[in-house]
Amino acid sequence: MKYSRITGTGSYLPEKVLNNYDLEKMVDTSHEWIVERTGIEKRHIAEEGQSTSDLAEIAAKNAMEMAGKTADDIDLVIVATTTPDLIFPSTACLLQKKLGITNSATAFDIQAVCTGFVYALGIADKFIKSSTHKCALVVGAETLSNILDWTDRSTCILFADGAGAVVLEESDEPGILSTHLHADGKYDELLRTKGGLSKNKELLDSGGAFVEMRGNEVFRVAVNTLGRIVDETLEANNMKKSDVDWLVPHQANIRIINATAKKLKISTDRVVVTVHEHGNTSAASVPLALDAAVRDGRIKRGETILLEAFGGGFTWGSALLKY
């Protein structure tokens, strides 16, 4: 049996930092309130002119370096993003060009908001297991600061920019054990932007297509949904909750992370938390957290890792893997 296995991780956060004290000068909020409600202490913001593919490029190079891979080795590029550089070409094609991947590799974007990276990982896993591809670069990258209303304290304190990446290779050793991807569009109004290219285009033209969120309702659905997908994932693999070594959740809000850990009955010291460092970076948050824990030595080869995420749509998903 062929598996797909993560052989390299990488990440990148823009140099510009906006902390909670900076936000106190912009909107009616406080450092203490933000930390208590979200766990976020600071967030990274892309510089003017710094695009999503720019962030993705650095994260991808870091992942490729860890995996010992060159541009010639990559035959699949998937970028998960809600904030692409352009309508087209895809950010994946732009990234392919920047990395010098000239071997006609497959390249495309996917959009599942905060669950985007988990979706992309699930897709890449299927490509590799079907033997059509052997080495995938999977990236989650966002410049969400471009679609934030910086006068709306309910959203501007939460979201930020960043990129994370993994190299996924064909392997005889166990790697990704299963992925589980879901969506339910009936919740579309709870977390969204109102403007687009074929609907409410005037909002996009006027710069008013900002992120909108009903935070309390999103929180309730997220906690219940993530609890269910944890059970689904473990049942599919005939595993117990105690078999999971590390939970790497979407870094949206410390309360959601803690509630999910409680449902999993996993100690908080076995949960990778980076939300305080960079806020909610949507599709980038899971690979950012994974890379941080791999590079600091917490996550070790052979351990069982559960990735999970929840995002606008609503979308949600999980991936269980042997690292």
Please, could you describe this protein's structure?
The chain is of the alpha/beta class and 323 residues long. It has two domains: 3-173, Thiolase/Chalcone synthase (Peroxisomal Thiolase, Chain A, domain 1); 178-322, Peroxisomal Thiolase, Chain A, domain 1 (3-Layer(aba) Sandwich), CATH 3.40.47.10. It is built from ten helices and 13 strands. Helix 4 links the parallel strand 4 and strand 5. The longest helix is centred in the C-terminal third of the chain and has 22 residues, at 215-236.
Short synopsis of the structure:
The chain is α/β, with parallel strands linked by helices. The protein has helices spanning about 20-25, 30-40, 50-65, 90-100, 115-130, 200-205, 215-235, 255-265, 275-280, 285-295, and strands spanning about 5-10, 15-20, 40-45, 75-80, 105-110, 135-145, 160-170, 175-185, 190-195, 210-215, 245-250, 305-310, 315-320. It has two domains: about 5-175, Thiolase/Chalcone synthase (Peroxisomal Thiolase, Chain A, domain 1), CATH 3.40.47.10; about 180-320, Peroxisomal Thiolase, Chain A, domain 1 (3-Layer(aba) Sandwich).
Instruction: State Rg.
Output: 18 Å
Assign a percent range to the helix content. 25-40%
What does the main sheet amount to?
5 strands, mixed
The CATH class of the largest domain is: Alpha Beta
What is the element string, with H for helices and E for strands? EEHHEHEHEHEEEEHEHEHHHEE
Work out the strand percent.
25-35%
CATH fold label of the largest domain: Peroxisomal Thiolase, Chain A, domain 1
